[in-house]
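Thread amino acids onto this structure.
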């Protein structure tokens, strides 16, 4: 049988439109990749060549995609020679991009209170999902069926200049006011968590902040919540435990080392529980998004 990914992944020579550096060796890269931009979904990623001298590609989550203008944005943190080389790219350079790859997040309309949890370099898919769920321009928030809340955690400075939120958010601990300005502009409430004592941030893990917010909800409100998470494995495991405690559906995006990223090498397999029993699934094309209960 033909692969379900056949005809949906594209190979493009992408032009670097911009690259901005942020504290903590973090970079935001914008690429002109019209085919990828037209088909990208929150949770999908690209496999790109970082430098001609480094043969192995690197998988990076898509943070934003603009189908009409034909660009995608990637947030990454420099770890290793490949991403160090990528950080040296400048406007006008070309990179080979394979994407979009993977199964995306799937929100359910019966659960409009979407709780988006992003940790470190797991932040990008949450920004992408929040953009898809935000109220359309010119439409008041109350008219939108979705009510996204984005909670982000990081132990290095966030890759944006945070500011106090003007969006009132019941259930937040006192003093937890720092937000991501871009989300604030979209009308999407967000709050930040860190154990690094950043101003306005919740002092603790992002899952602990989520726990406090969930504890403030009534039974009817909890029945409308669905959790989406991306970040380090320990954070995803904590997200699954949190969802289980409140009896909520939860989707997680896994991070794994991978060579081909299109399902051929099976180097990124993880054990997953299925209705037919335990199975090994490939994070690249069977994921990266999985039901949290099936992997944790």
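Threaded sequence (296 positions):
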């Amino acid at each position: 049988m033909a692969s379900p990914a056949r005809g949906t992944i594209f190979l493009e020579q992408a032009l670097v439109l911009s690259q901005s550096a942020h504290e903590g060796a973090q970079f935001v890269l914008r690429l002109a990749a019209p085919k990828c931009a037209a088909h990208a979904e929150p949770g999908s990623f690209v496999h790109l060549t970082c430098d001609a001298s480094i043969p192995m590609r690197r998988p990076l989550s898509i943070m934003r995609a603009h189908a009409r203008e034909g660009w995608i944005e990637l947030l990454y943190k420099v770890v290793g020679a490949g991403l160090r080389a990528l950080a040296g790219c400048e406007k006008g350079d070309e990179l080979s991009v394979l994407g979009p790859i993977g199964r995306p997040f799937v929100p359910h309309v019966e659960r409009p209170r979407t709780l988006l949890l992003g940790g470190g370099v797991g932040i990008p898919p949450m920004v992408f999902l929040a953009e898809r769920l935000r109220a359309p321009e010119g439409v008041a928030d109350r008219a939108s069926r979705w009510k996204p809340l984005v909670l982000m955690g990081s132990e290095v400075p966030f890759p944006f200049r945070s500011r106090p939120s003007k969006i009132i958010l019941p259930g937040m601990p006192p003093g937890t006011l720092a937000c991501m300005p871009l989300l604030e502009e979209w009308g999407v409430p967000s709050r930040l968590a860190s154990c690094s004592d950043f101003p306005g941030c919740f002092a603790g893990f992002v899952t602990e902040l989520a726990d406090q917010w969930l504890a403030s909800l009534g039974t009817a409100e909890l029945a409308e919540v669905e959790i989406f998470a991306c970040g380090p494995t320990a954070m995803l495991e904590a997200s699954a435990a949190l969802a289980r405690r409140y009896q909520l559906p939860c989707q997680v995006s896994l991070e794994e080392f991978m060579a081909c990223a299109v399902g051929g090498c099976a180097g990124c397999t993880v054990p997953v529980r299925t209705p037919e029993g335990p199975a090994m699934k490939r994070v690249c094309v069977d994921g990266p998004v999985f039901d949290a209960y099936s992997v944790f």
